[in-house]
Amino acid sequence: MKSNKEFVVIGLGRFGGSLCKELTSIGIEVLAIDKDAERVQEYNSVVSHSVELDAVDEQALIEIGIRNFDCVVVSIGEDIQASILITLILKEIGINQIWVKARDDYHQKVLEKIGADKIIHPERDMARRIAHHISSDKVTDYIELSKDFSIVEIIASSKIAGKTLSKLDAQDRYKCTIVAIKKSEDEISIIPSVDTRIDLNDILVMIGNNKALERFEDERI
User: Fold this and answer.
1) What's the mean pLDDT in 67-81?
2) CATH assignment of 6-120?
3) What is the pLDDT of residue 55?
């Protein structure tokens, strides 16, 4: 499905390039920017538009109409100075949403102070997801929402198979909410009713406090 949103990705390294491909695949118009001509050429056939320029050049950004885009992602991870300077320029220009890839916690602190709207740690975030995958054979996916809250996908074991959501009582007993149940790839129940029956190997999509989710996993899975 084509989206009417338009994004800019500055920096076509491994993360920026992958992001361009994913955004394009879901119908989002992408302008890809890099100062390396070969990288720009590589993504010319992937995204809507690709431009070779140095993003620390404020006038060049203005001339390509960067103000007209919904969000700009700065995916320059190695050159911290350039990442910070570009973020400052984008704030000065008046970009509504600025997402920036951070290399480390120091980089993040600076980005926070200068007003980045969202800071991305792709390697760290992926490491956390993998850690949750390998620590439990029942957790199929994990997304951290904040320091204290997450979304997890948990495979229903024989301990809870056959129970209804009402009987499971995850909301009152564990302070976790089951927001969806995946019966199969094609059968997903969003915000299931309390009468919904859980079958063996159903995937429960749950949201809640991290400690509460861990307690649910320990006691019910």
Assistant:
1) 90
2) 3.40.50.720
3) 96
